[in-house]
C-alpha cells in the first residue's frame, strides 16, 4: 500500500528524477502513474487497480506492442520501489506479470484466461459467497462494494492476516468479504449488501422488455423479497417432498429402466396409486403416460439427486444426503423453482407475483393472467402461437411445482344442468407453506441476484 502521506508533488519529484537518469524510463513511469490515477492522486492506487491496469488494460490498449509491456512493467517496478511500495514493485516485476503478458502475446483468448487466473490467485479479487454473487454488469453501489472489498482484502494481506496461496486463504478472504459488505455504512443505516440488493432490484423492476404497465406489480414485489426467507424445518420439508423422497429412495443404489429408458411399469403403478396421479379406469402402460412422474424424474436429475448411467437410475450422494437431512436439498429445490431456461423462469416470476401470500386462486384465471403477462413481453413467438406457447409454459411450471410439493391444486367439477353441464367447482391452484417460502427464496435470488446484462 502507498504511504497515505504521499502527495502528487512527491510522486512527480520521483518521476522527474527517473527521467533525469533515463528519459524513456521517465516517460514510461509517467505513463504508469497516469494510467493508475487518471489525474486523481495517489489515493487512487490500489493493488487491485494496479493488477487490472497491468494485466488487462495495458495489453488491451496497446495490443501487439509486446516489448512495450515489459518496459512499462520494469518502469513501474522502479517507480514503486522509489516510492517505498515494495509489494507493488514486486507485482510489476513478478513472473505472474510476465506470464500474463506472454499469454496476451500468444492470443487475446490466452491473455484473458491468464489474466483472470492471476487475478483470482492474487488475494484481492472479491470472492462470491454462498449467499452473494458478484455481477458481470454492475451499478454504482456494486462498484463501491467491490472497491471496498478489494481494499479490505489488500489491508488484510498488508497486515499479515491473509496470505494468498496458503492453506485456507480463500475461506479467510470470504470472511473479509462478508464482514465488509455486511458492515453498516455510516450515515446510511444500511450495509453495502442491502444497497447492492436494492440497486439490483430497481433494475429488475423496470426492464426494457417488460411493458411499463407491469412495472408497478414488480415494484410491489420488491419489498417482499429483499431478504431471503429462512428454510422451513425438516419436518415440513419431509411432508412436502413425499413424492421426491419416495423416488430417490426407490432408486437407491440403482433402479433398472426399461429398454426405452422408462421407469418400470410396476414402479409407475406404485407411484400413481400412492400419489393419485391417474384418473382413468385402465392403468398406465408406462412412465410416458404419467406426466407428473416424468416431470418429477426430470427435476430430480436436474437437481442431481438422481443420475442415469446406461439403463440404471441411481440416487447420487447428494440425493442420499437429503434423505437423512432434508435441509440439504433446500438450496437445490429453490433453484429448481425457475426451471432450466429463461422462458419458464419468466413464467415462474409472473406466477410468483400472482401467488405468493395469496392462498387459493381460480386456476383458469391464474393461468390466463400469467400467460397474458408473458405474451405482452418481448418474446420471439409467432402471434398465432403466443397463447398456446405461454399458457403451456405456465401450466408446466405449476405442475412441476406441484410434484415438488410446492403447489397444490384441485380440478374443476361439473354437473349436468338443464341447459348443459355447469361448473360447480372451479379449478384452483395455491402455494403450499413450503412452496410459498421456496418461491419467495427463488424470487430473492432472481430480484437481488447478480446481473449479466445492463437491463
Could you characterize what this model shows?
The chain is mainly α and 455 residues long. It contains 21 helices and eight strands. It has helices spanning 8-21, 23-37, 47-61, 66-82, 86-93, 95-106, 108-121, 140-159, 169-182, 192-205, 215-225, 234-240, 242-251, 265-275, 291-302, 317-324, 330-336, 342-355, 363-375, 383-403, 433-448; strands at residues 255-256, 306-309, 312-315, 361-362, 407-410, 413-415, 422-425, 428-431. The strands form three sheets. A three-stranded antiparallel sheet has the order 1-3-2. The two termini are 36 Å apart.
What's the structural blueprint in terms of helices and strands?
Elements: H1 8-21, H2 23-37, H3 47-61, H4 66-82, H5 86-93, H6 95-106, H7 108-121, H8 140-159, H9 169-182, H10 192-205, H11 215-225, H12 234-240, H13 242-251, E1 255-256, H14 265-275, H15 291-302, E2 306-309, E3 312-315, H16 317-324, H17 330-336, H18 342-355, E4 361-362, H19 363-375, H20 383-403, E5 407-410, E6 413-415, E7 422-425, E8 428-431, H21 433-448
Antiparallel strand pairs: 1-3, 2-3, 4-8, 5-8, 6-7
Helix pairs in contact: 1-2, 2-4, 3-7, 4-5, 4-6, 6-7, 8-9, 8-10, 10-11, 17-21, 18-19, 18-20, 18-21, 19-20
